[in-house]
Amino acid sequence: MDRWYRNGAFYAVDVACFQDSDGDGVGDLQGLASRLDYLARLGVTAVWLHPLHESPRRDGGYDVIDHYTVDPRFGTLGDFAHLMNEADERGMRIVLDLVLNHTSDQHPWFLDACSAPDSPYRDWFLWSDEEPPDRFDGGVFPGVQQGIWSYHDQAGAWYRHRFYNFEPDLNTSNPAVRAELLKIVQFWLRLGVAGFRLDAAPFLIERKCGDGGPDFEFLRDLKEAISWRRGDAILLAEANVPADELLEYFGEADGAVSRLQMLFAFQLNQCLMLSMARGDAGPVSDVLRRLPELPRHAQWATFLRNHDEVDIGRLSEAERAEVFAAFGPKPEMQAYGRGLRRRLAPMLDGDQRRLRMSYSLQLTMPGTPVLRYGEEIGMGEDLDLEERQAIRTPMQWSNSVNGGFSEADADDLVAPVIGDGEYGYTRLNVTDQRRDPDSLLSWMERMLHTRREMPEIGVGDHETLDIGPHHVLVHRARVDGNTVLFLHNLADQACTLDLSAVVGDEDEPLDVATDSTYEKPCGLGQMQLHGYGYRWLRLRCRAGAPPFAEELGASQHSGS
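Request: output the structure for the sequence above.
Response:
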Protein backbone atom coordinates (compact mmCIF):
# COMPACT_ATOMS: atom_id res chain seq x y z
CA MET A 1 0.00 0.00 0.00
CA ASP A 2 1.38 3.41 -0.96
CA ARG A 3 1.38 6.06 1.75
CA TRP A 4 0.12 9.60 1.16
CA TYR A 5 3.47 11.19 1.96
CA ARG A 6 5.33 9.27 -0.76
CA ASN A 7 3.86 10.90 -3.86
CA GLY A 8 3.22 14.54 -3.09
CA ALA A 9 4.96 17.79 -2.22
CA PHE A 10 5.51 19.41 1.19
CA TYR A 11 5.52 23.21 1.48
CA ALA A 12 7.20 24.81 4.49
CA VAL A 13 5.46 27.91 5.87
CA ASP A 14 6.51 30.38 8.52
CA VAL A 15 3.04 31.65 9.44
CA ALA A 16 4.46 34.91 10.81
CA CYS A 17 5.91 35.79 7.39
CA PHE A 18 3.30 34.39 5.01
CA GLN A 19 0.13 36.52 5.04
CA ASP A 20 -1.18 39.10 7.51
CA SER A 21 -4.99 39.25 7.58
CA ASP A 22 -5.58 41.91 10.25
CA GLY A 23 -2.97 44.57 9.47
CA ASP A 24 -0.86 44.19 12.62
CA GLY A 25 2.29 43.36 10.65
CA VAL A 26 2.42 39.68 11.63
CA GLY A 27 1.24 36.82 9.46
CA ASP A 28 -1.53 34.73 10.95
CA LEU A 29 -3.66 31.61 10.52
CA GLN A 30 -6.50 33.41 8.80
CA GLY A 31 -4.02 34.84 6.34
CA LEU A 32 -2.62 31.39 5.63
CA ALA A 33 -6.13 29.98 5.19
CA SER A 34 -6.84 32.66 2.59
CA ARG A 35 -3.85 31.45 0.54
CA LEU A 36 -4.65 27.73 0.49
CA ASP A 37 -6.12 27.95 -3.01
CA TYR A 38 -2.78 29.28 -4.18
CA LEU A 39 -0.99 26.31 -2.61
CA ALA A 40 -3.49 23.84 -4.04
CA ARG A 41 -2.96 25.25 -7.52
CA LEU A 42 0.80 25.07 -7.06
CA GLY A 43 0.54 21.33 -6.39
CA VAL A 44 1.14 21.25 -2.64
CA THR A 45 -0.25 18.20 -0.85
CA ALA A 46 1.02 18.87 2.69
CA VAL A 47 1.78 22.16 4.47
CA TRP A 48 4.50 22.03 7.11
CA LEU A 49 3.97 24.83 9.63
CA HIS A 50 6.90 26.21 11.60
CA PRO A 51 6.19 26.48 15.36
CA LEU A 52 2.75 27.92 16.12
CA HIS A 53 2.98 27.71 19.88
CA GLU A 54 3.05 30.72 22.17
CA SER A 55 6.60 31.99 22.29
CA PRO A 56 8.76 35.10 22.81
CA ARG A 57 9.99 34.27 19.28
CA ARG A 58 13.62 34.98 19.99
CA ASP A 59 14.36 31.89 17.87
CA GLY A 60 11.59 31.86 15.29
CA GLY A 61 9.13 30.22 17.67
CA TYR A 62 11.38 27.32 18.62
CA ASP A 63 11.56 28.87 22.10
CA VAL A 64 8.16 27.57 23.26
CA ILE A 65 6.37 28.73 26.41
CA ASP A 66 3.12 26.72 25.94
CA HIS A 67 2.86 23.63 23.73
CA TYR A 68 -0.94 23.54 24.02
CA THR A 69 -1.76 26.93 22.53
CA VAL A 70 -1.43 28.96 19.37
CA ASP A 71 0.61 32.15 19.71
CA PRO A 72 -1.97 34.97 20.06
CA ARG A 73 -0.21 36.88 17.29
CA PHE A 74 -1.27 34.11 14.91
CA GLY A 75 -4.84 33.72 16.15
CA THR A 76 -6.69 31.23 18.30
CA LEU A 77 -7.29 27.50 18.41
CA GLY A 78 -10.55 28.32 16.66
CA ASP A 79 -8.56 29.86 13.80
CA PHE A 80 -6.43 26.74 13.72
CA ALA A 81 -9.55 24.56 13.47
CA HIS A 82 -10.77 26.77 10.61
CA LEU A 83 -7.43 26.29 8.82
CA MET A 84 -7.72 22.53 9.25
CA ASN A 85 -11.23 22.56 7.77
CA GLU A 86 -10.13 24.64 4.79
CA ALA A 87 -7.14 22.35 4.18
CA ASP A 88 -9.41 19.29 4.32
CA GLU A 89 -11.69 20.86 1.71
CA ARG A 90 -8.72 21.05 -0.67
CA GLY A 91 -7.31 17.63 0.09
CA MET A 92 -4.24 19.06 1.82
CA ARG A 93 -2.72 17.87 5.08
CA ILE A 94 -1.18 19.96 7.84
CA VAL A 95 2.11 18.89 9.43
CA LEU A 96 3.17 20.71 12.58
CA ASP A 97 6.63 21.49 13.89
CA LEU A 98 7.15 19.58 17.13
CA VAL A 99 9.74 21.12 19.46
CA LEU A 100 10.39 18.63 22.26
CA ASN A 101 14.10 18.99 22.92
CA HIS A 102 13.90 22.29 24.79
CA THR A 103 11.60 25.09 25.91
CA SER A 104 11.89 28.84 26.37
CA ASP A 105 13.44 30.02 29.61
CA GLN A 106 10.08 31.77 30.09
CA HIS A 107 8.14 28.49 30.04
CA PRO A 108 6.20 27.92 33.30
CA TRP A 109 7.97 24.59 33.74
CA PHE A 110 11.39 26.22 33.75
CA LEU A 111 10.30 29.17 35.89
CA ASP A 112 8.94 26.75 38.47
CA ALA A 113 12.07 24.60 38.25
CA CYS A 114 14.21 27.63 39.04
CA SER A 115 12.11 28.68 42.02
CA ALA A 116 13.31 25.99 44.43
CA PRO A 117 15.49 22.85 44.48
CA ASP A 118 12.46 20.77 45.50
CA SER A 119 10.24 22.05 42.68
CA PRO A 120 8.33 19.20 40.99
CA TYR A 121 9.71 20.50 37.69
CA ARG A 122 13.33 20.65 38.81
CA ASP A 123 14.19 17.28 37.26
CA TRP A 124 12.42 18.23 34.03
CA PHE A 125 15.61 20.06 33.07
CA LEU A 126 19.33 19.30 33.36
CA TRP A 127 21.32 20.85 36.21
CA SER A 128 24.79 20.89 37.68
CA ASP A 129 25.80 22.37 41.04
CA GLU A 130 29.39 22.79 39.83
CA GLU A 131 30.63 24.32 36.61
CA PRO A 132 30.41 21.38 34.14
CA PRO A 133 33.66 20.25 32.50
CA ASP A 134 31.90 20.14 29.12
CA ARG A 135 30.60 23.69 29.48
CA PHE A 136 31.99 24.79 26.10
CA ASP A 137 31.54 21.52 24.18
CA GLY A 138 28.97 20.58 21.55
CA GLY A 139 27.21 23.87 20.90
CA VAL A 140 24.90 24.10 17.89
CA PHE A 141 25.78 27.72 17.05
CA PRO A 142 29.58 28.07 17.16
CA GLY A 143 30.74 31.65 17.01
CA VAL A 144 27.35 32.92 18.21
CA GLN A 145 26.45 31.01 21.37
CA GLN A 146 29.28 30.40 23.82
CA GLY A 147 28.92 27.06 25.57
CA ILE A 148 26.06 24.69 26.39
CA TRP A 149 25.77 25.41 30.14
CA SER A 150 24.74 28.68 31.77
CA TYR A 151 24.46 29.67 35.43
CA HIS A 152 21.03 30.65 36.74
CA ASP A 153 21.21 32.98 39.74
CA GLN A 154 17.78 32.18 41.16
CA ALA A 155 18.23 28.41 40.74
CA GLY A 156 21.76 28.56 42.10
CA ALA A 157 22.90 26.01 39.55
CA TRP A 158 24.06 25.52 35.97
CA TYR A 159 21.47 24.44 33.38
CA ARG A 160 22.19 22.82 30.01
CA HIS A 161 21.12 24.20 26.62
CA ARG A 162 22.38 22.68 23.38
CA PHE A 163 20.93 25.64 21.51
CA TYR A 164 20.63 29.24 22.76
CA ASN A 165 20.96 30.01 26.47
CA PHE A 166 17.29 31.04 26.52
CA GLU A 167 16.31 27.50 25.43
CA PRO A 168 16.97 25.10 28.35
CA ASP A 169 17.08 21.41 27.41
CA LEU A 170 14.32 19.15 28.67
CA ASN A 171 15.39 16.02 30.51
CA THR A 172 13.83 13.50 28.15
CA SER A 173 15.22 10.65 30.26
CA ASN A 174 12.67 11.62 32.93
CA PRO A 175 9.52 9.44 32.56
CA ALA A 176 7.30 12.35 33.62
CA VAL A 177 8.72 14.50 30.82
CA ARG A 178 8.18 11.74 28.29
CA ALA A 179 4.60 11.27 29.38
CA GLU A 180 3.94 14.99 28.96
CA LEU A 181 5.53 15.07 25.52
CA LEU A 182 3.31 12.21 24.40
CA LYS A 183 0.28 14.15 25.67
CA ILE A 184 1.34 17.13 23.52
CA VAL A 185 1.50 14.88 20.47
CA GLN A 186 -1.92 13.41 21.15
CA PHE A 187 -3.44 16.85 21.73
CA TRP A 188 -2.50 18.12 18.27
CA LEU A 189 -3.48 14.85 16.61
CA ARG A 190 -6.95 15.31 18.10
CA LEU A 191 -7.09 18.67 16.34
CA GLY A 192 -6.47 16.94 13.04
CA VAL A 193 -2.82 17.36 12.13
CA ALA A 194 -1.43 14.70 9.79
CA GLY A 195 1.94 14.47 11.48
CA PHE A 196 4.91 16.30 12.89
CA ARG A 197 8.31 17.53 11.84
CA LEU A 198 10.49 16.45 14.75
CA ASP A 199 12.96 19.22 15.57
CA ALA A 200 16.56 18.38 16.56
CA ALA A 201 15.91 14.64 16.76
CA PRO A 202 19.51 13.59 17.65
CA PHE A 203 19.50 15.87 20.70
CA LEU A 204 16.02 14.75 21.68
CA ILE A 205 17.15 11.11 22.00
CA GLU A 206 20.44 11.80 23.76
CA ARG A 207 20.59 9.84 26.99
CA LYS A 208 20.48 12.60 29.57
CA CYS A 209 21.29 10.40 32.55
CA GLY A 210 24.16 7.96 32.44
CA ASP A 211 26.09 6.62 29.50
CA GLY A 212 24.93 4.89 26.37
CA GLY A 213 24.07 5.58 22.77
CA PRO A 214 20.99 7.36 21.42
CA ASP A 215 17.67 6.31 22.94
CA PHE A 216 15.97 5.24 19.73
CA GLU A 217 13.17 3.57 21.65
CA PHE A 218 11.79 7.00 22.47
CA LEU A 219 11.17 7.41 18.73
CA ARG A 220 9.30 4.11 18.77
CA ASP A 221 7.17 5.38 21.65
CA LEU A 222 6.32 8.52 19.68
CA LYS A 223 5.47 6.44 16.60
CA GLU A 224 3.17 4.18 18.62
CA ALA A 225 1.47 7.17 20.23
CA ILE A 226 0.57 8.75 16.92
CA SER A 227 -0.33 5.45 15.24
CA TRP A 228 -2.92 4.62 17.90
CA ARG A 229 -4.54 8.04 17.50
CA ARG A 230 -4.28 8.40 13.72
CA GLY A 231 -3.05 5.50 11.66
CA ASP A 232 -1.79 7.54 8.71
CA ALA A 233 0.03 10.24 10.71
CA ILE A 234 3.76 10.63 10.12
CA LEU A 235 6.92 11.72 11.87
CA LEU A 236 9.46 13.60 9.74
CA ALA A 237 12.75 14.06 11.57
CA GLU A 238 15.56 16.55 11.29
CA ALA A 239 18.65 14.40 11.84
CA ASN A 240 21.88 15.37 10.14
CA VAL A 241 23.79 12.33 11.36
CA PRO A 242 26.50 9.98 10.01
CA ALA A 243 25.41 7.47 7.39
CA ASP A 244 25.76 4.48 9.72
CA GLU A 245 23.08 5.91 12.05
CA LEU A 246 20.40 6.73 9.48
CA LEU A 247 18.57 3.40 9.45
CA GLU A 248 18.30 3.45 13.24
CA TYR A 249 15.98 6.46 12.99
CA PHE A 250 13.59 4.53 10.77
CA GLY A 251 13.79 1.32 12.76
CA GLU A 252 12.45 -1.91 11.34
CA ALA A 253 9.94 -4.53 12.41
CA ASP A 254 8.79 -7.25 10.01
CA GLY A 255 10.46 -5.33 7.19
CA ALA A 256 8.52 -2.11 7.84
CA VAL A 257 9.17 1.14 9.68
CA SER A 258 8.96 0.89 13.48
CA ARG A 259 10.08 4.43 14.40
CA LEU A 260 10.05 7.36 11.98
CA GLN A 261 8.55 7.29 8.50
CA MET A 262 10.57 10.18 7.05
CA LEU A 263 14.02 11.75 7.37
CA PHE A 264 15.38 14.84 5.71
CA ALA A 265 18.03 13.70 3.21
CA PHE A 266 20.88 15.87 4.51
CA GLN A 267 23.63 13.81 2.91
CA LEU A 268 21.92 13.98 -0.47
CA ASN A 269 21.41 17.73 -0.06
CA GLN A 270 25.07 18.37 0.69
CA CYS A 271 26.23 16.33 -2.28
CA LEU A 272 23.73 18.11 -4.51
CA MET A 273 25.22 21.42 -3.45
CA LEU A 274 28.74 20.14 -4.14
CA SER A 275 27.76 18.83 -7.57
CA MET A 276 26.10 22.14 -8.43
CA ALA A 277 29.16 24.07 -7.26
CA ARG A 278 31.51 21.92 -9.35
CA GLY A 279 29.28 21.42 -12.36
CA ASP A 280 30.05 17.73 -11.88
CA ALA A 281 27.50 14.98 -11.34
CA GLY A 282 30.00 12.81 -9.47
CA PRO A 283 29.11 13.70 -5.86
CA VAL A 284 25.36 13.27 -6.28
CA SER A 285 25.84 10.10 -8.32
CA ASP A 286 28.06 8.66 -5.59
CA VAL A 287 25.67 9.48 -2.76
CA LEU A 288 22.72 7.97 -4.64
CA ARG A 289 24.67 4.72 -4.82
CA ARG A 290 25.49 4.90 -1.10
CA LEU A 291 22.01 5.64 0.23
CA PRO A 292 20.85 2.64 2.28
CA GLU A 293 17.86 0.56 1.30
CA LEU A 294 14.97 1.75 3.44
CA PRO A 295 12.40 -0.31 5.33
CA ARG A 296 8.93 -0.58 3.83
CA HIS A 297 6.98 2.73 4.04
CA ALA A 298 10.12 4.76 4.89
CA GLN A 299 10.87 7.83 2.81
CA TRP A 300 13.48 10.54 2.33
CA ALA A 301 12.43 14.19 2.35
CA THR A 302 14.47 16.01 -0.29
CA PHE A 303 15.26 19.72 -0.29
CA LEU A 304 17.58 22.30 -1.76
CA ARG A 305 16.84 25.08 0.71
CA ASN A 306 15.30 24.67 4.15
CA HIS A 307 14.41 27.17 6.87
CA ASP A 308 17.88 27.14 8.45
CA GLU A 309 21.30 27.61 6.90
CA VAL A 310 22.37 25.33 4.03
CA ASP A 311 24.30 22.94 6.25
CA ILE A 312 27.37 21.52 4.47
CA GLY A 313 29.13 20.54 7.66
CA ARG A 314 29.53 16.86 6.70
CA LEU A 315 31.50 17.68 3.58
CA SER A 316 35.28 17.74 3.91
CA GLU A 317 36.97 21.05 4.62
CA ALA A 318 38.14 21.27 0.99
CA GLU A 319 34.66 20.46 -0.31
CA ARG A 320 33.06 23.08 1.95
CA ALA A 321 35.54 25.61 0.59
CA GLU A 322 34.38 24.80 -2.95
CA VAL A 323 30.72 25.32 -2.05
CA PHE A 324 31.46 28.54 -0.17
CA ALA A 325 33.49 29.87 -3.10
CA ALA A 326 30.68 29.10 -5.54
CA PHE A 327 27.64 30.17 -3.54
CA GLY A 328 28.75 32.28 -0.56
CA PRO A 329 32.21 33.77 -1.00
CA LYS A 330 31.65 36.65 1.41
CA PRO A 331 31.78 36.07 5.20
CA GLU A 332 28.34 37.64 5.68
CA MET A 333 26.87 34.94 3.42
CA GLN A 334 28.07 32.17 5.73
CA ALA A 335 26.92 30.92 9.12
CA TYR A 336 28.49 28.94 11.98
CA GLY A 337 31.44 27.89 9.82
CA ARG A 338 29.31 25.18 8.23
CA GLY A 339 26.56 26.74 6.18
CA LEU A 340 25.11 29.34 3.84
CA ARG A 341 22.43 31.78 4.94
CA ARG A 342 21.21 32.49 1.42
CA ARG A 343 18.26 31.61 -0.78
CA LEU A 344 18.89 29.45 -3.83
CA ALA A 345 18.06 32.00 -6.55
CA PRO A 346 20.77 34.52 -5.58
CA MET A 347 23.21 31.67 -4.93
CA LEU A 348 22.78 30.82 -8.62
CA ASP A 349 22.98 34.51 -9.66
CA GLY A 350 19.35 34.46 -10.76
CA ASP A 351 20.20 32.19 -13.74
CA GLN A 352 16.85 30.66 -14.66
CA ARG A 353 18.42 27.77 -16.54
CA ARG A 354 20.49 26.69 -13.52
CA LEU A 355 17.62 27.35 -11.13
CA ARG A 356 15.15 25.20 -13.05
CA MET A 357 17.67 22.44 -13.68
CA SER A 358 18.45 22.40 -9.93
CA TYR A 359 14.80 22.10 -8.93
CA SER A 360 14.26 19.48 -11.63
CA LEU A 361 17.12 17.56 -10.07
CA GLN A 362 15.51 17.80 -6.64
CA LEU A 363 12.10 16.75 -7.93
CA THR A 364 13.53 13.57 -9.48
CA MET A 365 15.51 12.45 -6.44
CA PRO A 366 14.27 9.43 -4.42
CA GLY A 367 11.88 10.75 -1.82
CA THR A 368 9.31 13.49 -1.34
CA PRO A 369 10.24 17.11 -2.22
CA VAL A 370 10.03 19.83 0.41
CA LEU A 371 9.86 23.43 -0.81
CA ARG A 372 10.26 26.49 1.39
CA TYR A 373 7.78 29.31 0.91
CA GLY A 374 8.91 31.72 -1.79
CA GLU A 375 11.14 29.21 -3.58
CA GLU A 376 8.54 28.87 -6.30
CA ILE A 377 9.06 32.49 -7.32
CA GLY A 378 12.82 32.65 -6.68
CA MET A 379 12.84 34.91 -3.60
CA GLY A 380 16.11 36.36 -2.33
CA GLU A 381 17.59 36.98 1.11
CA ASP A 382 18.30 39.98 3.34
CA LEU A 383 21.87 39.67 4.58
CA ASP A 384 21.39 42.68 6.86
CA LEU A 385 19.34 40.41 9.14
CA GLU A 386 21.12 38.28 11.72
CA GLU A 387 21.97 34.61 11.34
CA ARG A 388 19.12 32.47 9.96
CA GLN A 389 16.77 35.46 9.79
CA ALA A 390 18.31 36.38 6.42
CA ILE A 391 15.97 33.97 4.63
CA ARG A 392 12.95 34.51 6.90
CA THR A 393 11.50 37.56 5.14
CA PRO A 394 7.81 38.08 4.28
CA MET A 395 6.25 36.39 1.25
CA GLN A 396 6.12 38.62 -1.81
CA TRP A 397 2.58 38.44 -3.20
CA SER A 398 2.37 41.57 -5.34
CA ASN A 399 4.01 44.91 -6.11
CA SER A 400 1.66 46.73 -3.73
CA VAL A 401 2.69 48.07 -0.32
CA ASN A 402 4.82 45.58 1.67
CA GLY A 403 4.62 43.13 -1.21
CA GLY A 404 0.98 42.38 -0.42
CA PHE A 405 2.02 40.69 2.81
CA SER A 406 0.54 43.28 5.19
CA GLU A 407 -1.09 46.70 5.25
CA ALA A 408 0.79 47.65 8.42
CA ASP A 409 3.42 50.37 8.52
CA ALA A 410 6.83 49.08 7.50
CA ASP A 411 8.18 49.65 11.01
CA ASP A 412 5.51 47.32 12.44
CA LEU A 413 6.29 44.32 10.21
CA VAL A 414 7.52 41.12 11.84
CA ALA A 415 10.49 41.32 9.44
CA PRO A 416 11.39 43.74 6.67
CA VAL A 417 10.13 42.91 3.20
CA ILE A 418 12.81 42.77 0.52
CA GLY A 419 12.13 45.98 -1.35
CA ASP A 420 15.19 46.82 -3.40
CA GLY A 421 17.19 45.25 -6.18
CA GLU A 422 16.60 42.28 -8.40
CA TYR A 423 14.79 40.35 -5.66
CA GLY A 424 12.65 43.21 -4.36
CA TYR A 425 8.89 42.71 -4.31
CA THR A 426 8.24 45.34 -7.00
CA ARG A 427 10.18 43.19 -9.46
CA LEU A 428 9.59 39.70 -8.09
CA ASN A 429 6.19 38.64 -6.80
CA VAL A 430 3.44 36.06 -7.21
CA THR A 431 0.99 38.29 -9.09
CA ASP A 432 3.39 39.18 -11.88
CA GLN A 433 4.59 35.61 -12.24
CA ARG A 434 1.03 34.28 -12.28
CA ARG A 435 0.41 36.34 -15.42
CA ASP A 436 3.54 35.04 -17.14
CA PRO A 437 3.35 31.48 -18.51
CA ASP A 438 7.16 31.38 -18.72
CA SER A 439 7.76 32.46 -15.12
CA LEU A 440 9.40 30.29 -12.48
CA LEU A 441 6.05 30.02 -10.67
CA SER A 442 4.26 28.73 -13.77
CA TRP A 443 7.12 26.33 -14.42
CA MET A 444 7.04 25.03 -10.84
CA GLU A 445 3.30 24.38 -11.06
CA ARG A 446 3.75 22.32 -14.23
CA MET A 447 6.65 20.37 -12.79
CA LEU A 448 4.93 19.54 -9.50
CA HIS A 449 1.80 18.33 -11.28
CA THR A 450 3.85 16.34 -13.77
CA ARG A 451 5.79 14.75 -10.94
CA ARG A 452 2.60 13.55 -9.29
CA GLU A 453 1.78 11.70 -12.52
CA MET A 454 5.09 9.85 -12.25
CA PRO A 455 4.75 7.77 -9.05
CA GLU A 456 7.97 5.94 -9.92
CA ILE A 457 9.91 8.88 -8.45
CA GLY A 458 8.37 8.70 -4.99
CA VAL A 459 7.97 4.94 -4.57
CA GLY A 460 10.26 3.34 -7.15
CA ASP A 461 13.78 1.97 -7.07
CA HIS A 462 16.38 4.49 -8.27
CA GLU A 463 19.57 3.64 -10.14
CA THR A 464 22.32 5.90 -11.45
CA LEU A 465 23.81 5.07 -14.85
CA ASP A 466 27.35 5.71 -16.11
CA ILE A 467 26.48 7.45 -19.35
CA GLY A 468 27.80 10.64 -20.87
CA PRO A 469 30.32 13.19 -19.63
CA HIS A 470 31.08 13.87 -15.96
CA HIS A 471 28.77 16.89 -15.84
CA VAL A 472 25.66 14.86 -16.76
CA LEU A 473 23.64 12.80 -14.29
CA VAL A 474 21.60 9.99 -15.79
CA HIS A 475 19.38 7.99 -13.46
CA ARG A 476 16.18 6.01 -13.64
CA ALA A 477 13.33 4.99 -11.35
CA ARG A 478 11.33 1.80 -11.75
CA VAL A 479 8.26 0.32 -10.13
CA ASP A 480 5.70 -2.30 -11.21
CA GLY A 481 7.33 -2.69 -14.62
CA ASN A 482 7.25 1.02 -15.43
CA THR A 483 10.47 2.99 -15.92
CA VAL A 484 11.26 6.69 -16.11
CA LEU A 485 14.67 8.07 -17.09
CA PHE A 486 16.12 11.44 -16.07
CA LEU A 487 18.91 13.42 -17.72
CA HIS A 488 20.43 16.49 -16.04
CA ASN A 489 23.28 18.60 -17.34
CA LEU A 490 25.06 20.44 -14.52
CA ALA A 491 27.28 22.44 -16.88
CA ASP A 492 26.77 25.12 -19.52
CA GLN A 493 28.00 23.09 -22.51
CA ALA A 494 25.55 21.06 -24.58
CA CYS A 495 26.17 17.38 -25.21
CA THR A 496 24.86 14.30 -26.99
CA LEU A 497 24.17 11.11 -25.06
CA ASP A 498 24.10 7.51 -26.21
CA LEU A 499 21.25 5.72 -24.39
CA SER A 500 21.35 2.57 -26.47
CA ALA A 501 23.00 0.63 -23.64
CA VAL A 502 20.14 1.29 -21.20
CA VAL A 503 17.07 1.54 -23.43
CA GLY A 504 16.05 -1.74 -25.01
CA ASP A 505 14.69 -2.21 -28.50
CA GLU A 506 11.20 -2.71 -27.09
CA ASP A 507 11.25 0.75 -25.44
CA GLU A 508 10.71 4.14 -26.97
CA PRO A 509 11.75 7.16 -24.90
CA LEU A 510 8.97 9.72 -24.61
CA ASP A 511 9.73 13.24 -23.39
CA VAL A 512 7.56 14.12 -20.39
CA ALA A 513 9.25 17.31 -19.18
CA THR A 514 12.17 19.16 -20.75
CA ASP A 515 14.01 22.45 -20.44
CA SER A 516 13.12 23.26 -24.08
CA THR A 517 11.70 21.56 -27.13
CA TYR A 518 13.95 18.79 -28.42
CA GLU A 519 13.70 17.18 -31.82
CA LYS A 520 12.86 13.52 -31.77
CA PRO A 521 16.21 11.72 -31.86
CA CYS A 522 17.15 9.77 -34.94
CA GLY A 523 18.42 7.05 -32.67
CA LEU A 524 19.15 6.34 -29.04
CA GLY A 525 22.77 7.32 -29.63
CA GLN A 526 21.77 10.87 -30.53
CA MET A 527 19.97 12.12 -27.41
CA GLN A 528 20.57 15.87 -27.17
CA LEU A 529 20.88 17.80 -23.92
CA HIS A 530 21.40 21.56 -23.74
CA GLY A 531 23.64 23.37 -21.29
CA TYR A 532 21.92 23.26 -17.87
CA GLY A 533 19.27 21.17 -19.61
CA TYR A 534 17.09 18.37 -18.28
CA ARG A 535 14.82 15.74 -19.77
CA TRP A 536 12.33 13.48 -18.05
CA LEU A 537 11.71 10.45 -20.27
CA ARG A 538 9.14 7.74 -19.93
CA LEU A 539 10.19 4.44 -21.42
CA ARG A 540 7.21 2.74 -22.95
CA CYS A 541 6.82 -0.56 -24.67
CA ARG A 542 6.11 -0.18 -28.39
CA ALA A 543 3.25 -2.62 -28.06
CA GLY A 544 1.41 -0.40 -25.60
CA ALA A 545 2.14 2.62 -23.45
CA PRO A 546 0.91 3.26 -19.89
CA PRO A 547 -2.55 4.91 -20.01
CA PHE A 548 -1.23 8.42 -19.30
CA ALA A 549 1.97 8.34 -21.36
CA GLU A 550 0.43 9.74 -24.53
CA GLU A 551 -1.04 12.65 -22.58
CA LEU A 552 2.39 13.52 -21.18
CA GLY A 553 4.31 13.77 -24.42
CA ALA A 554 6.47 16.56 -25.79
CA SER A 555 3.57 19.00 -25.45
CA GLN A 556 4.43 19.10 -21.74
CA HIS A 557 7.63 21.06 -22.41
CA SER A 558 8.40 22.79 -19.11
CA GLY A 559 11.12 25.17 -20.12
CA SER A 560 11.00 28.90 -20.59
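The two ends are 37 Å apart (CA to CA).
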